[in-house]
Description:
The structure is a single chain. It is elongated and about 60 Å long. The strands form four sheets. Strands 1-3-8-5-6 form a five-stranded mixed sheet, with no helix packed on it. It has a four-stranded antiparallel sheet with strand order 2-9-4-7, with no helix packed on it. By secondary structure, it is mainly beta. Helix content is 4%, strand content 47%. The protein has two domains: 9-135, Jelly Rolls; 138-248, Jelly Rolls (Sandwich), CATH 2.60.120. The model is unreliable at 1-26 (pLDDT under 50).
Amino acid sequence: MTMGSWPGVALAAALLAGCGGARTAPGRSISIGGELTAVLRSTDPRLNDNSVYHLYAFRGNAGQIVQIDVMSSDFDAFAILQDAAGNELSRDDDDGEGFDARITYTLPSTGSYRIVANTYRSDRYGTYRIRITNLAASTARSGMTIQRGVRLNGRLTPSDPRMADNSVFHYYVYNGRAGEMITVDVMSRDFDAYAIIQDASGTELIRNDDGGGGTNARISFRLPYQGQFRILVNTFTSGSYGAYTVWVH
């Protein structure tokens, strides 16, 4: 395992501030496309919930879609993605295999990012692997986090999950603010597009068929709370498939 060091006192101070009062973690660096193995021990720095953690830094480009996996057979893995200033962008517990953590995220700008590799509960330790995969923007996958202002291109196929009417769908996760006004466009030349916004539990909030002109779907909606929402990309009729673009703005 090859690990880099964080240079300078200023960066150490930023790490401390970004982790809510936790002691500064040993600095590690990882590249997109890379994988590292490490061990969380009882002597490692702790977050405010008393769980131990490691910090990793990587660089990415605006619009780049990354998949971050924290995998362990020794503990329930947890992952947090932050920007360079320590502001949280996304977090996950069990979206990977079993109790592994997985974050899929579209980077909003070119620069440095940080990953907190963590345990779901305190007093859990052991070996884990951390991996960052570069996902092509043209092959967006269901379940990804979607960012405001970023267009994702995907493709609905007969093997995708289905709604009650037997039409296929993809879903994307949007982290919104209470009172935020968003517009969601689902556009396709291959099928009559349909869009649905759900809350985090899957309860439908609003839907649209042709509000975007032609057979494109558009929803303008004010978010009722701060948290995660699900945006469903769907077809108006079953048996329809093909390429689409989804855009939150």
